[in-house]
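Researcher: Sequence recovery benchmark, item below. Answer with residues only.
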């Protein structure tokens, strides 16, 4: 239960961050969302949801490693990327997803 609350909080903070940035950065966020929403359905046909989150976040964020890591953790922390935040259904998948983000782009 605490994991779900934490994930929902992280997702909400991520969305607040996106909404508080200047318009040029909002355009970049919208481009990320467009890319992500095109990537995810095709990926889900053969890969677990959390691994699709990692792959699509990495493919759709054109920033540096820190930006990709932040985007990756954001998409791991919600079931509704680029829409109103919804806490992930599967807590273990969230932990696996974030661990994979950190393995690929993080500490």
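Model:
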């Amino acid at each position: 239960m605490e994991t779900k609350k934490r994930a929902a909080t992280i997702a909400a903070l991520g969305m607040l961050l996106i909404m508080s940035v200047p318009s040029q950065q909002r355009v970049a966020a919208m481009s990320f969302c467009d890319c992500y929403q095109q990537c995810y359905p095709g990926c889900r046909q053969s890969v677990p949801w959390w691994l699709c989150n990692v792959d699509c976040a990495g493919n759709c964020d054109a920033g540096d490693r820190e930006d990709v890591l932040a985007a990756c953790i954001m998409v791991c922390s919600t079931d509704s990327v680029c829409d109103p935040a919804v806490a992930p259904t599967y807590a273990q998948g969230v932990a696996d997803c974030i661990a994979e983000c950190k393995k690929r782009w993080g500490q």
